[in-house]
């Protein structure tokens, strides 16, 4: 039995006898199979919502695979490198604003793949398009390996496109269908070539073949529909967990998600906001200006946090001809982030009074999520969200 692990499970061309296809996220125990193939050639995998090129959003799936590989006892592992796909990053307002080809970020590519098997992070990988002949099939590859080991597969130009590294087999070949996979596994001697089933055998239907084929077809359709619904639900849950991350994160990670939430609440595109190391955000919407600080700390809100916000608020008034009542200062605080939400102490009255005096508004990230939750449920619209943020000072207590 062979398990093929892909980013998205619905890869029809890879299906075949004795093959189980699972999403990497849902990998079955590796030792339940004789061979496990980890296929990283999916452009939807190579994306990051952050503003910089780093570990991809699904990197935790790689880390889980790494533990499974370390614990396996008998199975054979094959890792198929991606082709020269497009790496997408800098996500905002339902789209990615930055793109780069994998060939131009090979060190970062290897850092990601190294989370599956640590020795891969130091692999010498070179970009060059090659063709290899395997079982009469012409198979392309975008990269090749520079290694002193004898290659298991070399291209027509003599470049090494597959070899064994420790306990895993690695390849840069673009294996697109079941036949190519089987020929490749035969080439690297992980399976022994058996007599090929002639095509005319499909026409030989005996016993209850027809009934069983109908049953297989019907149940595959049901499974496919159920898997699609599960995939949709998991994607929604992943996004929900990303939003909820503002309850425990800090720094750029916190700022990035908070701005994504604020962008939807205010109907404002923060992707063009230029961070000059002053305020964390500035949104000019009609006659109103929203200016603010975003902080993640282990302690409660302090007076210095409110005072720092006031410096940005006063600075904006000094540099712009605008009425103070049209400028709204917001302090978004993930305070006591090391505690469960239920165990966090209320913001002290002294800090609330200081915010009132400064005509600013403290919003803890839990209350921001409650506001966002009502918006996502269509209980309030963007105009009502803006009014809530405009017409309150001190601390946002209820929505």
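^ Assign residues to that structure.
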């Amino acid at each position: 039995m062979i398990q093929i692990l892909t980013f998205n499970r619905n890869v029809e061309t890879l299906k075949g006898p004795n093959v189980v296809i699972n999403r990497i996220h849902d990998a079955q125990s590796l030792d339940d199979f004789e061979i496990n193939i980890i296929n990283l050639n999916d452009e939807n995998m190579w994306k990051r919502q952050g503003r910089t090129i780093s570990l991809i959003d699904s990197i935790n799936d790689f880390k889980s695979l790494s533990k499974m590989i370390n614990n396996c006892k008998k199975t054979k592992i094959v890792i198929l490198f991606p082709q020269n796909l497009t790496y997408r990053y800098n996500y905002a307002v339902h789209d990615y604003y930055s793109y780069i080809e994998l060939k131009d970020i090979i060190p970062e590519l290897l850092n990601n793949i190294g989370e599956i098997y640590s020795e891969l992070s130091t692999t010498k990988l070179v970009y060059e398009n090659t063709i290899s002949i395997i079982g009469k099939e012409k198979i392309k590859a975008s990269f090749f390996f520079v290694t002193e080991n004898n290659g298991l597969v070399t291209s027509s130009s003599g470049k090494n496109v597959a070899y064994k590294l420790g306990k895993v087999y690695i390849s840069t070949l673009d294996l697109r269908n079941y036949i190519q996979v089987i020929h490749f596994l035969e080439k690297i001697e992980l399976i022994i070539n058996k007599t090929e089933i002639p095509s005319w055998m499909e026409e030989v239907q005996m016993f209850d073949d027809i009934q069983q084929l109908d049953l297989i077809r019907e149940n595959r359709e049901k499974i496919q529909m159920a898997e699609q619904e599960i995939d949709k639900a998991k994607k929604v849950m992943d996004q929900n967990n990303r939003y909820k991350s503002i309850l425990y994160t800090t720094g750029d990670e916190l700022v990035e998600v908070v701005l994504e939430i604020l962008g939807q609440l205010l109907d404002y595109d923060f992707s063009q906001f230029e961070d000059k190391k002053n305020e964390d955000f500035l949104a000019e919407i009609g006659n109103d200006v929203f200016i603010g600080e975003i902080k993640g700390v282990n302690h409660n809100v302090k007076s210095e946090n409110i005072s720092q916000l006031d410096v940005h608020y006063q600075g904006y008034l000094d540099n712009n001809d605008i009425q103070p009542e049209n400028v709204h200062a917001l302090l978004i605080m993930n305070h006591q982030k090391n505690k469960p939400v239920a165990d966090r102490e209320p913001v002290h009255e002294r800090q609330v009074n200081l915010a009132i005096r400064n005509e600013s508004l403290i919003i803890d990230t839990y209350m921001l999520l409650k506001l966002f939750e009502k918006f996502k449920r269509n209980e309030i619209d963007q105009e009502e969200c803006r009014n809530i943020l405009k017409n309150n000072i001190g601390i946002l207590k209820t929505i």
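The CA atoms of residues 206 and 319 lie 86 Å apart.
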